[in-house]
From TrEMBL:
InterPro entries: Calcineurin-like_PHP (IPR004843), Metallo-depent_PP-like (IPR029052), UPF0046_metallophosphoest (IPR051693)
Pfam families assigned: Metallophos
Domain of life: Bacteria
Lineage: Bacteria, Bacillati, Actinomycetota, Actinomycetes, Kitasatosporales
Stated name of the protein: Metallophosphoesterase
């Protein structure tokens, strides 16, 4: 059995269309949407609406962790614009292309920049969306928990720690634990290019220690200090920043 795993697709529909080649199934750990490409500020919803110069400034402020200034600039740019309508229209356009690229079967959960309420509209037969749910693939039980935790970035699908922990508890024991964010381990949460810690989950770390899955798979941190490490019996793997690599991580058994 061969499963390909991707995360942080961020608009790379061309790569996604090939991600399942040679696999029995594709697993996607979220962040389909591209709001702003920190490597190429001309790409994404933000520069499409406000231009590259505004994107340059937002990235500069966020990278310097001047989040309040970034929010002030953002509020000024959005003034007079129906933000919800504009974002939803842009996200719908991206989702139409990205969901059409999913092979059959695909098992997917949400990232922190995704909008879960729109997924049922685009998920076709052959794409199974799971969040706080489990599924058997080739004899192994995969558990999925999507979204991110509250952060200064205030991305669309951030939830409180209690809600996240409840979704984890609903999974029970699984062979492969799939999440968008990593467990709260410094080496797995630190982004070496952004030079900051992303939020990991303490509840996810506790679940790994308590239930001892074979694998814990995740994304979210684009350039982690450590891409994999073992926690007890569990191999923890950051499956990679698919938007830039277009290369899935391969799990075979």
């Amino acid at each position: 059995m061969r499963v390909h795993v991707v995360s942080d697709v961020h608009g790379n529909a061309e790569g996604l269309a090939r991600a399942g080649d040679g696999a029995d199934a594709l697993v996607c750990l979220g962040d389909l949407v591209l709001f702003l490409d920190y490597a190429d500020h001309s790409r994404g919803i933000f520069p499409e609406l406000f231009g590259v110069e505004a994107a340059d400034r937002i990235v500069e402020l966020r990278t310097a962790r001047r989040f309040e200034e970034a929010r002030t600039l953002s509020r000024a740019l959005w003034e007079g614009i129906d933000r919800d309508k504009a974002v939803e229209e842009a996200v719908r356009k991206q989702y139409a292309e990205l969901f059409a690229a999913f092979p059959t079967p695909t098992y997917a959960t949400f990232g922190n920049v995704d909008i879960p309420t729109l997924w049922p509209e685009f998920a076709r037969p052959g794409t199974t969306v799971l969040d706080g749910e489990r599924v058997e693939i080739g004899g192994l039980v995969f558990g999925f928990v999507g979204g991110g935790l509250r952060s200064p970035m205030r991305t669309p699908y951030e939830i409180d720690e209690e809600t996240y922990a409840a979704k984890l508890a609903a999974l029970g024991e699984v062979d492969v634990l799939c999440s968008h964010i990593p467990p709260d381990v410094p080496e797995l949460c630190y982004d070496t290019v952004a030079r900051r810690f992303e939020r990991g989950s303490a509840a996810l770390l506790e679940t790994i220690r308590a239930t001892r899955p074979r694998y814990a798979l995740f994304g979210h941190v684009h350039q982690p200090l450590a891409r994999r490490m073992r926690i007890g019996a569990t191999e923890c793997v950051n499956v990679g920043h698919f938007a830039s690599t277009a290369t899935p991580w391969v799990l075979e058994w």
